[in-house]
Every structure is written in structure tokens, then in C-alpha cells.
């Protein structure tokens, strides 16, 4: 019986092998098509972005030429380019545009890094130790609805108009966001992963290092990116109130003298620098958290 069944069984196995080979080839073709479509999709998205940006600039030029806003002056794109070159070459307020941007970036980086580091540590302790959570959460929930800009007069009164009040304001703006995202990330760690680690005999330190931390890092980077945008908002507001240099100061100073072109130069510079910093943070995220979005 086994002899009679041999050829049939061999035929079935041969058919199964052919089906498996066909399936593998189909998967490979789909993967190649997906890679090709992904490349084409990226170029299409870039083309859409460039097209929309060009359309907005064209609309800006038309609105400025028609003087739609009446007495309020809207500078043309060419005027903004002229003022940009002037700010780069000859400077504004005694400092070049690069120097103005540099001082703003330094303030953001110092306050942001301090808030990111402390926020991750505090968020981890709040998620792991209930007593720490009960002690900090009420204060965090009380301070979170208060606009950070409300603290500017106090910080200026206590610390003057130097660098410290601006850095502290950025710190206080970013800290709650990073804490809450870290806390959410730790609490969102799948219980099954923790149980597997415990079954394998992992210690608390090993569980924290190899299970909780990789799970929380995507949430941490999300909070850091949101906090970075808020940091720039708070910095510009602080520089408009108490500063003698910086991009926010440029906006206020140009506004006093009705230099709308220079206002646009400062605003666009803030947007470009903020975009580059966010792009750098995304590159770091891709290196540190390569598994994000692949689970």
C-alpha cells in the first residue's frame, strides 16, 4: 500500500513545492512592486509639496500686488528676499541674521534638553512608583492648564532679562509634555511582554531596560517633537517681552518700525530653523527607535 501511495504522495509534494515556489515568487514580485510604488509615491508626495508651496508663493505675490489689505502693507516675496539678504549681509539691530538665529537656537536647545531628560526620568518614576505619581500628578494637573506665557512677568521679576528666565520658560513649557508622554508610554506597555520577561527570570532592571524602555521610546520622541514646537512658541514670546537679541526680538522690533518685510524674514527663519530641528529629531528617532511603526 505504501508502494502504491508513493507516487501519489510524491505528486502531492511536488505540487505543494510548486505552489510554495509560486507563492514565494508572488511575494517577491509584490515586494518589488511595493518598493517601486513606495519610490514613486515619495516622488509624488514631494512633487505635491513643491507644487503647493509654489502656488502659495504665487498667491502671496498676487495678493501683495493687488493690495488686498488696504493700508496694511503686505510685502511682496521679492521684498522679503531683499530684506533677507540685507539681514544676512548687513545684519539687523547690530547683529547678523545668523547671530540672531544662533542665540534663539541656543536658548531652545538648553531648555529643551534639560526638560527632555528630566521629563523622561520623572515620567518613568511616576509610572513605576505609585507614591511618586500621587505626589507629582496633582501639581502637574494644576500647572498644565496655565499658559506658560503667564510666568514671563514672574521670571523676569525674579531673574531679570538675562538668559536664565528664557531657558526656564522653555523648560517649563516642555517638561509636562514629555512627562505625560513618558507616563503614557510606560502604562501602554503590553502586559504580555512583562509576563514573558518575568517567566524568563528577568530582574526589574532587566525588564526596565529590555522591555519597558523600548516600548516607551516612541511615545517619548512624540512628546519631544510636540515639546520642541511649544518651546519655540514660548521662546519667541519671551524674546518679544524681555530680550535685546533673538528672532522673537526681531519680530517685535521690526513691528515697532512697521518693517513688514523684516517681520516676514524673522517669521520664515523661525519656521525654517524649527523645521530643521524637528527633522534632526526625526533622524535621531529613526536611529534610536528603528522598530517604530513596524510592530
CATH class of the largest domain: Mainly Alpha
Class by alpha and beta content: mainly alpha
In whole angstroms, how far apart are the ends?
A: 49 Å
CATH topology group of the largest domain: MetI-like fold
What is the ordering of alpha helices and beta strands? Answer: HHHHHHHHHH
User: In total, how many beta strands?
Assistant: 0
**Tally of individual domains:** 2
Give the CATH H-level superfamily of the largest domain: MetI-like
Strand content: under 5%
What oligomeric state best describes the polypeptide chains here? single chain
The percent range for helix content is over 70%
Q: So how many helices?
A: 10
Rg estimate, integer Å = 28 Å
Describe the structure.
Helix 6 (163-187) packs antiparallel against helix 8 and helix 9 runs antiparallel to helix 10. The protein is globular. It has helices at 2-66, 77-89, 97-128, 130-143, 152-159, 163-187, 191-199, 204-241, 247-256, 260-288. The chain is mainly alpha-helical. It folds into two domains: 1-74; 77-288, MetI-like (MetI-like fold, Orthogonal Bundle).
Amino acid at each position: 500500500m505504501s508502494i502504491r501511495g508513493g507516487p501519489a504522495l510524491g505528486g502531492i509534494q511536488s505540487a505543494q513545492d510548486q505552489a510554495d515556489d509560486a507563492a514565494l515568487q508572488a511575494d517577491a514580485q509584490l515586494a518589488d512592486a511595493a518598493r517601486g510604488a513606495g519610490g514613486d509615491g515619495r516622488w509624488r508626495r514631494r512633487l505635491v509639496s513643491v507644487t503647493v508651496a509654489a502656488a502659495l508663493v504665487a498667491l502671496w505675490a498676487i495678493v501683495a500686488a493687488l493690495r488686498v489689505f488696504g493700508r496694511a502693507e503686505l510685502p511682496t516675496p521679492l521684498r522679503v528676499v531683499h530684506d533677507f539678504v540685507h539681514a544676512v549681509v548687513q545684519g539687523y539691530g547690530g547683529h547678523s541674521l545668523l547671530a540672531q538665529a544662533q542665540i534663539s537656537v541656543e536658548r531652545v536647545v538648553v531648555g529643551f534638553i534639560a526638560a527632555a531628560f528630566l521629563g523622561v526620568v520623572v515620567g518613568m518614576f511616576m509610572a513605576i512608583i505609585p507614591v511618586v505619581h500621587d505626589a507629582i500628578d496633582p501639581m502637574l494637573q494644576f500647572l498644565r492648564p496655565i499658559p506658560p506665557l503667564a510666568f514671563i512677568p514672574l521670571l523676569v521679576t525674579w531673574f531679570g532679562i538675562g538668559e536664565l528666565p528664557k531657558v526656564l520658560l522653555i523648560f517649563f513649557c516642555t517638561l509636562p509634555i514629555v512627562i505625560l508622554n513618558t507616563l503614557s508610554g510606560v502604562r501602554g506597555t503590553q502586559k504580555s511582554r512583562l509576563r514573558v520577561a518575568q517567566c524568563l527570570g528577568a530582574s526589574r532592571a532587566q525588564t526596565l531596560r529590555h522591555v519597558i524602555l523600548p516600548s516607551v521610546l516612541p511615545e517619548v520622541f512624540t512628546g519631544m517633537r510636540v515639546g520642541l514646537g511649544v518651546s519655540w512658541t514660548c521662546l519667541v514670546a519671551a524674546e518679544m517681552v524681555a530680550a535685546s537679541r533673538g528672532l522673537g526680538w526681531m519680530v517685535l522690533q521690526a513691528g515697532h518700525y512697521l518693517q513688514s518685510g523684516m517681520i516676514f524674514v524673522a517669521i520664515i527663519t523661525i519656521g525654517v530653523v524649527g523645521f530643521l530641528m524637528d527633522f534632526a529629531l526625526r533622524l535621531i528617532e529613526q536611529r534610536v527607535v528603528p522598530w517604530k511603526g513596524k510592530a
